[in-house]
Each structure stands twice: as structure tokens, then as C-alpha cells.
Amino acid sequence: MKKILACIFSLQVLAGVSQQTEISGTAIGHPGEMVRVIVYADQFSRLDSTLATVRTDVWGNFSFPVIVEKPTYAFLALGLKRGDFYLEPGNTYQFQIVDEIIQGSVFDQLPLQFNMHAGKDSLNKMIGQFNYEYNVFLYEKQREIIRSKSKSVVKDFVSKMKSAFISEMPAKNAYLENYVNYTLASLEWISSSKTDTAILMDYFVNQEVLRENIAYTDFFRDFFKEYFKTQKSYRYDELMGLMHSGQVQHIDSLLKRDDFLALDDALRELSLVSLLAWNFHNPDVSKERIIMLLQQIEDSGKYVKNRAVAKNFLHKLTYLQYGSKAPSFELPDENGDRISFSNFEGKFILLGFISSDCGPCFYDLVKLLEIQQSLASKLKIIMVVTDGELNKAMSQFDGNHQPITWLNLNDNVLIIENYEVKTFPTYVLINPDATIAMAPAPPPNENLETFIKGFMARYQNNK
User: Fold this and answer.
1) Percentage of residues in the chain having pLDDT higher than 90
2) What pLDDT is attached to residue 100?
3) CA-CA distance, 305 to 290, in Å (whole number)?
4) C-alpha–C-alpha distance, residues 439 and 351, integer Å
5) How far apart are CA 279 and CA 293, in angstroms?
6) Nearest-angstrom CA–CA distance, 440 and 351
7) Which residues contact 262 (CB under 8 A, 6 or more apart)?
8) How far, in Å, are 17, 63, 202, 390 from residue 14 at the CA level?
């Protein structure tokens, strides 16, 4: 009977059965704030995916379940601040969020700080211990790593870490084992303890693609970015020419010239997806061509999971690009009326994000008022006050703020995240059909009005 149960359990693990994981905790002094668990939709594109969202109660407590299939790298987020941890199926996690008050923009602050207790907390604890020893080694031995010709320092450390965190572990943990192996593989690579060919064959070609393991995907990105720069199988101009041709199968044939990549179709297709994404901002090839090529893989790639990665890259690369749908909002003005895109139908919108204590934000307002008056029939300027001090912000403009619409962000913090606001002020120009014209737009003293007029002409010509 025990053998039967063990067999059933093994099959469940192999099949990747989803299990409920319990998340709870306390954020003292943060009543009614949003708490999220965020993972990556895939760890190659790093596209965020929210597993669950809840708000704290009046005492700052929160509790909610999430469903996960495999151990994965995750974030606990309170408002816009987030801290990372490793999430395992069927485990329980209790967080005590540390409230650190730091002056300045939320984007200047530290990651979310918390104390965490897990019901079965071997993974987070062991990765933490491994990372500590790994970082100490890099700090103390950096000169020897670079200068040593025998590379014995690296080899001895790799052997020691594999023994301590893999061989001598009382219970096998596949995620930890792979995390250790691929972190150490990156050390072997940067120290030249192994050749690129040896790294490729030992860790990638015809090996399992560890899509949920952050150490694997980190190393994949670092290794293949450099590998494609230094490979000798084709010339750069050949690659650019085939990207311009717009046929993904021709680029795949080019990569097949590499005798090692030719051995693994799945790895080659995944590396091709990544190669295309990495060239999105390359001035030698148009963004439209890269999008077209990624769409071909999304539609007809050989491997389902690689098609999903292509889809996620497309979403991430085209997000807030010209013509993409602008994130919606509905926020109160100074009278409490709810304002959204529909209030300004048929007009361009210049959306500005400011805080009441941001000096440069208010220097811009004089020029913004001139732009608003100049383009009054075609443009509406909206200022979103992000720190809740709407009246204070409006009072700093000498009372001459009527042509500009002022909105209060309150606790709608995801709007800042959705518009990828990194500093204040940030401006975004939105077309009359609620699509993005320019994000971010330049400040008023850097020819903003000229840019606005240019996008107005472009939009009119495209109609």
C-alpha cells in the first residue's frame, strides 16, 4: 500500500498538479492597502503576472490563497513596493512587513522589507544561505578569480557548494539543486573555467529547459546574449539582412549553422525568440520587423511554451508604444467628480504625474498652461497628484489652474505602475482614440509642444 501511495504521489509531482498555497501577514500602519503576489508569466520575458490581490483590514492584516503548480520566484507587493521570495505549492507563508519610512519618491526607496515564516521553509532558507556564501566568495576572491590561470579557486568552490547544498542535503529539492547548479555554471563561465562550448553542451543543449528556475533563466539570458555576439557561424550583416526579410525560418536556418544549436530544436527556437526581443531597440532593424517575426513564432512556432514566451515578449515590447491601448483610469477631481478618457472624447490628452512636494513639477506648469491655451481646441492637460495632496498641489499654481484638470490618485497606485512612472514629473501623450502617442513624453522645456503637434499630424494622417 505504501508503494502504491508513493507511486501516486510521484505521478502527481511529475504531472505538476496545482496546489493551494496560503499567504497571510500583517502590515502595521497600512490599513486598506493593496497586497499582491506577483510572479513572471514566464521568466524569459519577465512579464509580470498577478496571482492574487487583497486589501489589508483596519489592523493591517491580510490573508488569501494562491494556486501554484511548481516552485517559482515570486514577489510580495504592498502598494508599489515589492520584495522577492520563493513560492512553493502547498506551503504556508506568514509575513511581517517592516514599515521603513524613507524620504523621497517611492521609486527611490528600498524593496519591500519583511520577515517571513514558512510552514516548510527549506527552499527560501537554503537559497538565502547559498547566496550569502556565493556573494562572500565573489567579494573576497574576485582578484584570484580573474587572475588565476589554473582556475583551481573556482573549481574548489564549485565542488564545495555542490557538496554542501546538493550531495549532503537530507532531502532532495530539485529547485534548489538546479538553482545551485546554474548559479555555479555562471561562475564557471565568467571565470573562463569552462569554454563556451563546454557550457553550452553541459548546461543547455539537450538539457531540460528550466522555465521556472530564476538561476537558469538569468544564466540563459547572460550567456546567450554574449554567445550571439561572439559566435563565428554567421556574420552580423547576414543576421540583419534576414531580420529585414521578415521570414523567421530563414533566421532559424542561419542559427542551425551552429553545430551545437543544430542539435536542439527547442533550445534554438527559444534562443531565437530571445535574440529577436534583444534586437527590438537595435537601430539596424525596424521594430515592426521584430514584431512581425515574433508574431510568426507566436502563431506557428514548433513548441507551445516557446510560443507563449514570444507572446509575452510581444506584449512587453509593445506596451506603451505608439498605437497601443492606454491604461484606463477613473479618478476624482477637486469636486469629487470621476474623470476618465470619456470626458475628453475627440481630444489629445497630456497626462502628467506629479507630487505636491516636487519643485520641478511646478516649474513646468507655466509652460504647460501656455501649451494648453495654444492647443485648447485639440488638447486637454490632466495633472494627476500622486501623494493625495490635491489642494496643496493646486494652491502652488497661484490659483491660475482652471485650464488644467487636476485629479487625485488616492489609493489607485496601480495607475502609476501601469504607466511605468519612474520619477516625477512624468508626462504621457494620449491620442483621441485612447491609444498611446508617446510614453514618456518630454518635459515642456524640451520642445514638448513641437512633439505634440507632430503626433497630432501623424494621427490625422493615419485616420
Assistant:
1) 75
2) 60
3) 19
4) 10
5) 11
6) 10
7) 255, 256, 268
8) 8, 29, 23, 55
In angstroms, the CA 396 to CA 244 distance is 52
**Which residue type, as a one-letter code, is found at position 387?**
D
CA 132 to CA 63: how far, in whole Å?
A: 30
pLDDT of residue 321: 95
Q: Which pLDDT tens digit goes with each residue over 206-259? A: 999 999 999 999 999 999 999 999 999 999 999 999 999 999 999 999 999 999
For residue 405, give the nearest of 324, 455, 335, 356 by alpha carbon.
Answer: 335
What DSSP character marks residue 163?
I
Grid cell for residue 400: 491660475
Encode burial over 235-267: b for 16+ CB neighbours within 10 A, e otherwise: eeeebeebbeeeebeebbebbeebebbeebeeb
Closest among 170, 184, 190, 292 to 243, alpha carbons compared: 292
Residue 421 has pLDDT above 70, yes or no: yes
Handedness of CA 389, 392, 396, 401 (dihedral sign): positive
Is the pLDDT confidence value at 397 over 70?
A: no
Average of per-residue pLDDT values in the chain:
90
Confidence band for 106, pLDDT divided at 50, 70 and 90: very low
pLDDT of amino acid 108:
46
Ordered by where they begin, the domains of the chain are: 2-121 (2.60.40), 127-318 (no CATH), 331-462 (3.40.30.10)
Please give the Cα distance from 209 to 183 (Å, whole number): 15
Pair 308, 42: CB distance under 8 Å: yes
Supply the pTM of this predicted model.
0.87
Q: Which helix (H) or strand (E) holds 453?
A: helix 448-462
In tens, the pLDDT along 254-272 reads: 999 999 999 999 999 999 9
DSSP state for residue 312 in the 8-state scheme: H
The two beta strands, 426-430 and 436-441, are antiparallel
Helix 152-162 / helix 123-147 crossing angle, nearest 10 deg: 170
- What's at 450, amino acid-wise? T
**Higher model confidence: residue 393 or residue 433?**
433
- Euclidean distance between CA atoms 314 and 294, whole angstroms: 7
